[in-house]
């Protein structure tokens, strides 16, 4: 929990105690544009919007209309962040470990994937900051926080399989996060949808490379990563 978000805006004498969890003041819950009991969506007036925006300035981008459980979203994003960071490490390890003629084209893909996973990690960390959270990059527990594993593949075939399994785990995990978010946090949902599309592309590329490698193996035997 970001202590700043618990704090009352001292510059505003009307500011009230911040309620952890959903970013709302107690008096703002009913007026925050949430669906009313009957299901009707309330639209705030301009004076209401202006007044609420001036309160709780320490909450930054998190306004009273934020509709998700902020703490839970930050937790989910930190799992996604750990997943991306572990994928960066695995792809970079595979990039340096793979060598030889059979690996040249695949190495380039490993490096490109590593760079794209780092980009995802940066975007997720940025969103965690916007939500008032702390992007957890502590190496302690990184592998446990990550949904995907670091992997232990030795041959090119094994490395590609490790990468494909990790991508498939990320795809399933991110799909669940997107479903969970729904329309309660559309900014985070759109971010995760964009990342998910890239993970699906990665999985497709890895699958194609695996098939290509197995056809080559049928001709001249399975190459080791160090060949
Ligand atoms: Fe990624
Ligand atoms: Fe990926």
Structural summary, described in words:
The protein is an all-alpha fold and 227 residues long. It folds into 2 domains: 3-59, no CATH class; 70-220, Ferritin, CATH 1.20.1260.10. Helices cover 59% and strands 2% of the residues. The protein contains 7 helices and 2 strands; from the N terminus they run αββαααααα. The protein has a two-stranded antiparallel sheet with strand order 1-2. A hairpin with a 4-residue loop joins strand 1 and strand 2. The chain is elongated, with a radius of gyration of 22 Å. The structure holds fe (ii) ion (2 copies).
Query: Sheet bearing the most strands, described?
Result: 2 strands, antiparallel
- CATH fold descriptor of the largest domain: Ferritin
Helix content: 55-70%
Instruction: Note the quaternary state here.
Output: single chain
Q: Treating each run of at least 4 consecutive H or I residues as one helix, how many helices?
A: 7
Q: Can you tell me the CATH superfamily of the largest domain?
A: Ferritin, core subunit, four-helix bundle
Number of domains: 2
Give the termini separation: 50 Å
Q: Tell me the strand percentage band.
A: under 5%
**Cross-sheet strand order for the largest sheet:** 1-2
State the total count of DSSP E strands: 2
Q: Supply Rg.
A: 22 Å
The CATH C-level class name of the largest domain: Mainly Alpha
* CATH architecture group name of the largest domain: Up-down Bundle
Low-confidence stretches: 1-33
Structural class: mainly alpha
